[in-house]
Design goal:
With about 250 residues, this protein is α/β, with parallel strands linked by helices. The protein is built from 9 helices and 7 strands.
Length: about 250
């Protein structure tokens, strides 16, 4: 057990981040009408919000609970994610999974790897006869993105610092509220375009190798735009550990 609780908290995305191969997409591809791809394209292009997109996609699912569990078992987590969890536990850092995907897929995956972590996700409910419905217990009426799961609700107030780890569109909004972002994929492009404090990563091996430096950056940098009364921008950190600065200037 850690000797004290850290002032840093980590929020980490699930699909595409903890699990390199998107579990939600795999479930949809396995058991949904092909129209789910048209809905996904509408979401990714910004023509549809995630809440409406996912509700419509889930309406196309035709599978039993056993089918869903089998599909989840066909995907694996990042090989270094358990080591990352252990690292955070040793430092007293809380880790919460924040996902725009399905709660039961996260439950299955965490149980499979014997990981006990809190998570917030959309609730996938079985209606019988191979049909499903999606509920949104973590939505917010004030969410700017009309997200299925408003991840911004999980950002703790000051003085606690937040590191966000993610990869895609569902992480765009919360990235502006975090103190530092470890990014993959489209989230890296977004952080660059918005000039948010971030470091590109490939996998959790990168996170484990440089995590203490990222913690220092989160503590010493100024808060991201949405956490300031008067918005300001910060420079990104360069991805090369040999040349990256350990603290950000305001």
């Amino acid at each position: 057990m850690p000797s004290s609780v850290s002032d840093v908290r980590v929020l980490v995305d699930f699909d595409g981040t903890i699990v390199p191969g998107d579990v939600t997409d795999h479930v949809m591809a396995s058991f949904a009408d092909a129209r789910w791809l048209e809905l996904e394209e509408a979401f990714q292009s910004g023509r549809m919000n995630s809440r409406d997109c996912m509700a419509a996609q889930v309406a196309l699912l035709r599978a039993t609970p056993a089918d869903i569990a089998r599909a989840v078992s066909e995907r694996v987590i990042d090989a270094d994610f358990p080591a990352f969890v252990q690292l955070c536990q040793a430092r007293g850092i809380g880790v919460t999974i924040v996902s725009d995907g399905f709660d039961i897929t996260i439950e299955h995956m965490l149980a499979r790897y014997d990981l006990a972590l809190p998570f917030v996700a959309n609730h996938l409910e079985y209606l019988g006869d191979r049909q499903w419905r999606l509920d949104f217990p973590h939505r917010s009426a004030s969410c700017r993105m009309t997200a299925a799961n408003c991840k911004c609700l999980q950002v703790p107030p000051r003085p606690q610092r937040t590191i966000m780890i993610g990869d895609g569109r569902s992480d765009f909004c919360v990235a502006t509220r975090a103190d530092f972002v470890l990014s993959k994929g489209r989230l890296t492009d977004h952080c660059r375009a918005q000039n948010l404090a971030h470091a590109p990563i490939t996998d959790f091996g990168d996170v484990v190798a440089d995590f203490d430096r990222w913690i220092a950056a989160a503590r010493q940098g100024q808060p991201n735009t949405d956490r300031l009364p008067n918005p300001a921008r910060r420079p990104s950190m360069v991805p090369d550990p040999a040349t990256a600065q350990t603290a950000l200037t305001g």
